Amino acid sequence: MAKFYLPRKGSSPHIAICHIVHLGGTATYQQIAPHLTPSHQSRVHFDSIVVSPLLDFGFITRDGRYSFKATEKGKDYAGQYLSDALPCHEQYVGKTVPGRTFNPQRELNIAKHRAVAPFRPGSDDYKEIPSLMGNQRVAHKGSSN
């Protein structure tokens, strides 16, 4: 049965107590913090999220402001996990993004892009009126089909 009152395996307090015991029973903040998740590495979060639970469980005592010593209870707790590999926050390893792929270019289907037929007879009559360009009359350049 799970012991819900102990640090969960893989959590920051669990990683911290295992590293303190692995380092001989005493460790400083600078020795523990690199192994924790980045959000728990700041000193404020380290105190509230990592140190406070370990002090409440009786696993560590403070030797100084940021120096900690593992108690016998803490050594017993960490001893059952130290036979495995030392726990550490797993770093995310990103995957390389594959190159862009494009669909093969198809020939343009002219039949799909025909001009719209006029709505009513006589609506294209403006194309018959020549335009004035500069001082010359020029025929409309669009098709009159």
Outline the structure in words.
This protein has 145 residues and is α+β, with helices and mostly antiparallel strands. The protein has a domain at 12-79: Orthogonal Bundle (Arc Repressor Mutant, subunit A). Helix content is 26%, strand content 11%. It has four helices and five strands, in the order αβααββαββ. It has helices spanning 12-22, 29-32, 43-57, 72-79; strands at 26-28, 60-62, 67-70, 131-133, 136-138. Strands 1-3-2 form a three-stranded antiparallel β-sheet. A two-stranded antiparallel ribbon has the order 4-5. The longest helix is centred in the middle third of the chain and has 15 residues, at 43-57. The N and C termini lie far apart (86 Å). The mean pLDDT is 80.
Record the SSE blueprint.
Elements: H1 12-22, E1 26-28, H2 29-32, H3 43-57, E2 60-62, E3 67-70, H4 72-79, E4 131-133, E5 136-138
Antiparallel strand pairs: 1-3, 2-3, 4-5
What's this entry about, in short?
The chain is of the alpha+beta class. 26% of the residues lie in helices and 11% in strands. The chain has a domain at 12-79: Arc Repressor Mutant, subunit A.
